[in-house]
Design brief:
43% of the residues lie in helices and 22% in strands. With 182 residues, the protein is an alpha/beta fold. Strand 8 and strand 9 form a beta hairpin. InterPro entries: Flavoprotein-like_sf, FMN_Rdtase-like_dom, NAD(P)H-dep_reductase.
Length: 182
């Protein structure tokens, strides 16, 4: 049983990407999953001056959680065809704690948005950035038109094709991290 850390890169308490994380992590029974709510952590904007004052406790907390988990499930939100400033700030801090902060991590990367592209630009950004920090994106999934394809009250994907797609990436990701653990 592999430990998986899951989180959404959103500061919103009503994050649709966090809802997607909860949907996906509920489906995983053959691994130990911990869901971290980054939006509840107070993290200052990165600057070299702040770094010289020392790393914030919440940055060290996130870093420790990532180090402890061989696998990650990350859902990134998208603002103006990029990751949110909130998530980029967390990446900036973590990369200063340790450039290779994702070293050896297997990652299931996801995104959703109200639009037809489902956060595809933010997803691509992370696919390109995470390997620079040592992470391996082994699976990815984008859920477009969140409000048409997801029932927030029930926490379920209502579009059968997208639901099957999620099942497929979870199965592949789970198998990949099992093989890596053996």
């Amino acid at each position: 049983m592999t430990k998986i850390l899951a989180f959404a890169g959103s500061s919103s308490p009503t994050s649709i990407n966090h809802q997607l994380i909860l949907n996906v992590t509920r489906r995983i029974s053959d691994h130990q999953v911990e869901v971290l709510e980054l939006n509840k952590l107070d993290i200052p904007l990165y600057s070299i001056v702040k770094e010289k004052e020392g790393f914030p406790e919440n940055v060290k907390f996130i870093y420790k959680k990532i180090v402890e988990a061989p696998a990650l499930i990350i859902a990134v939100n998208e603002y103006n065809s990029n990751v949110s400033g909130f998530f980029k700030n967390i990446i900036d801090w973590l990369s200063r704690v340790e450039k290779n902060f994702l070293g050896g991590k297997k990652i299931l990367l996801m995104s959703t948005s109200p639009g037809k592209r489902g956060g595809a630009s933010a997803l691509e950004y992370c696919k390109n950035q995470f390997p620079r920090f040592g992470g391996e994106v082994v699976e990815s999934f984008s859920l477009p038109q969140f409000y048409e394809n997801f029932d927030s009250e029930k926490g379920v994907v209502v579009n059968e094709i997208f639901d099957l797609g999620i099942i497929d990436v979870i199965t592949s990701f789970s198998q990949n991290i099992k093989e890596a653990a053996e």
